[in-house]
From TrEMBL:
Main location: membrane
GO BP annotations listed: proton transmembrane transport
Organism from which the protein derives: Phycicoccus duodecadis
Keywords: Antiport, Ion transport, Membrane, Transmembrane, Transmembrane helix, Transport
Transport is among the record's keywords: yes
Lineage, uppermost ranks: Bacteria, Bacillati, Actinomycetota, Actinomycetes, Micrococcales
GO MF: antiporter activity
Entry's transmembrane regions: 6-24, 31-52, 64-81, 102-122, 181-198, 210-229, 249-280, 300-322, 328-346, 367-385, 397-418
Compartments in which it is found: Cell membrane
Protein name according to UniProt: Sodium/proton antiporter (CPA1 family)
Membrane topology: Multi-pass membrane protein
Length: 437
C-alpha cells in the first residue's frame, strides 16, 4: 500500500510541475514555494509518521543529486544568455560589468558577512562559520527562474540579439558564474577544519584553489564547448552537423563532457559547464538549435528541481530542522534581509557605464539586483561536499540552518519576484530609455 501511495504522490507531483508554470505566472507565488509546501504537507501525512530525514546518513545521495541539478541549471543558464562575451573586445567585457562586480565584490562580502556573524556574535567555530558563509554566498541558478532571462532568442540580426532587461541579465550571469567561484571559500573552510591554521596552507590555496582551478576550469569548458560547437554547427560531413539533424540531447552530452574533463584536470567543473554553454552559444548565435537544446535542458532541470524541492519540503517537517536554534534563525534572516542586499548594493558603488554600452543599471534596478540573491540547491551541494571531505562538529546545526535559510529565501524571494519584476517591466515599457541602448 505504501509503495502504491508513493507512485500516486510522484505522479501527482510531476503533474503539478507541468501545471504550475501555466497557473502561477499571473500570481505572486512561485512554483518553488508550492513544491516546498507540497513536500512539507506530504511530510505531515500519516504515511510519513516515523520517517526522519537524517542529512548525515543521506549525505552521499544529497551531494550527487544536487550536483547534477546544479550542472543542468548552469548549462541552461549559459545557453539562455544572448549577450556575447568576446574575450578580445573590451566593450564586450564592459557589457558584463554588473556580473563582474557582483562576483568580485558581492560574493566575498556575503561570504565574509555570514562567516563573521556566525563566528563572532553567534559563537560558531571558525571552520563551520566560513563553510556557512561560502555555502550561502552564491545565488542559485536553479530556484531563481522568476528573476532570470527566459531563454535564447534567434530573431533579428545576430548583432542585435541581446537582453534589454539588465536586471535579469545581471542575476542570470551572476548565478552562472558564482557557483564555481564560491568553491575556493568552501575549500578554505575544509582546510581550516582539516589542516588547522591558515599559515600552513594559505599560499597553496591562493595559488591553486583561488586562481589555478578557476583558470583550468574555464579553459576546459571553453575547449569542450568549442569542440562540440564545431561538430554541431560546422562539421565537414553534413550528417555530423547535429544542429541540422536536430538532436538537442547534445546539450546534455556537452555539460557532462565539460564537467568530466574539468574535474579530470582538477579545475572547477561548475565553472567549466557555464563556460562550455557560453562557448556553444557564441557559434552561429541566431540558430534555432540553441532554443531546442535549452528546451531539453530546461525540462530535465524541471524534473530534478521537482525532486529536490519536494524532498526539501518533506525534510523540513521530518527532522531537517531538528537542530535549528535562535542562532540559525538570526543568521538566515540577516542574510536574506541585510547581508546579501547590502553586499549587492555595495558592489555597484562608483558604478559607471558609458552611454551605448550594455550593462547600465539605474538606482532602482541595482536595489532589485542586490535584494534578489536567491539561495537554494547549490548551497545544499556545497555543504554536502564539504562535510564529506572532512568532519565538522557543528554539521547537524549547519544542515538545520541551511534548510531554514533556503526555505526563507524560497518564501520571501518567491512571493516578491513576480510583482517586483512586473513593476520593472511596466516601467521599462512606459519609458523605453530605461531599457538601455
Amino acid at each position: 500500500m505504501t509503495a502504491t501511495l508513493v507512485y500516486v504522490v510522484l505522479g501527482a507531483s510531476l503533474l503539478l510541475a507541468a501545471v504550475l508554470p501555466q497557473v502561477l505566472h499571473r500570481y505572486a507565488l512561485s512554483a518553488p514555494i508550492v513544491l516546498v509546501v507540497t513536500g512539507m504537507l506530504v511530510g505531515l501525512l500519516p504515511l510519513s509518521t516515523g520517517i526522519v530525514v537524517d542529512p548525515l546518513a543521506l549525505r552521499p545521495v544529497i551531494e550527487h543529486v544536487t550536483e547534477v541539478t546544479v550542472l543542468v541549471a548552469l548549462m541552461g543558464v549559459g545557453l539562455a544568455l544572448d549577450r556575447p562575451l568576446r574575450w578580445r573586445v573590451a566593450r564586450s567585457w564592459r557589457a558584463w560589468g554588473p556580473a563582474w562586480r557582483l562576483l568580485a565584490v558581492g560574493l566575498p562580502l556575503t561570504t565574509a558577512g555570514v562567516a563573521l556573524l556566525a563566528w563572532g556574535p553567534l559563537g560558531v567555530a571558525l571552520p563551520a562559520a566560513l563553510l556557512l558563509g561560502a555555502a550561502l554566498s552564491p545565488t542559485d541558478p536553479v530556484l531563481a527562474s522568476e528573476v532570470q532571462v527566459d531563454g535564447p532568442t534567434q530573431e533579428g540580426d545576430v548583432d542585435e540579439i541581446d537582453e534589454t532587461d539588465e536586471v535579469r541579465f545581471a542575476l542570470t550571469s551572476e548565478a552562472g558564474l558564482n557557483d564555481g567561484l564560491a568553491f575556493p571559500f568552501v575549500y578554505a573552510a575544509v582546510f581550516l577544519a582539516s589542516k588547522g591554521a591558515a599559515s600552513g596552507w594559505f599560499g597553496q590555496w591562493l595559488a591553486w584553489e583561488l586562481v589555478g582551478k578557476v583558470v583550468v576550469g574555464t579553459l576546459a569548458g571553453v575547449a569542450v564547448g568549442w569542440a562540440v560547437a564545431k561538430l554541431v554547427f560546422r562539421a565537414p560531413a553534413r550528417s555530423l552537423r547535429l544542429a541540422e539533424v536536430g538532436e538537442p540531447l547534445v546539450a546534455i552530452a556537452a555539460f557532462l563532457l565539460a564537467y568530466g574533463v574539468a574535474e579530470l584536470v582538477e579545475g572547477y567543473g561548475f565553472l567549466a559547464v557555464f563556460a562550455c554553454a557560453l562557448t556553444i552559444r557564441s557559434v552561429d548565435r541566431d540558430s534555432d538549435f540553441h532554443g531546442h537544446m535549452h528546451d531539453v535542458v530546461h525540462r530535465l532541470e524541471t524534473l530534478l528541481t521537482l525532486i529536490v524541492l519536494l524532498t526539501l519540503g518533506f525534510a523540513l517537517t521530518n527532522g531537517l530542522l531538528a537542530n535549528l536554534d535562535w542562532r540559525g534563525v538570526v543568521l538566515g534572516v540577516t542574510l536574506v534581509f541585510v547581508i546579501r542586499p547590502v553586499a549587492g548594493y555595495v558592489s555597484f558603488l562608483g558604478y559607471r557605464c558609458e552611454e551605448g554600452v550594455r550593462g547600465r543599471l539605474d538606482r532602482r534596478e541595482r536595489l532589485v539586483v542586490a535584494f534578489f540573491g536567491v539561495r537554494g540547491v547549490g548551497t545544499i551541494y556545497y555543504l554536502a561536499y564539504a562535510a564529506g571531505a572532512t568532519p565538522f562538529a557543528e554539521e547537524r546545526w549547519l544542515w538545520s540552518t541551511v534548510g531554514f535559510t533556503i526555505g526563507l529565501s524560497v518564501l520571501v524571494h518567491g512571493v516578491l519576484a513576480t510583482p517586483v519584476m512586473r513593476r520593472l517591466d511596466a516601467r521599462r515599457e512606459a519609458d523605453p530609455a530605461v531599457a538601455g541602448p
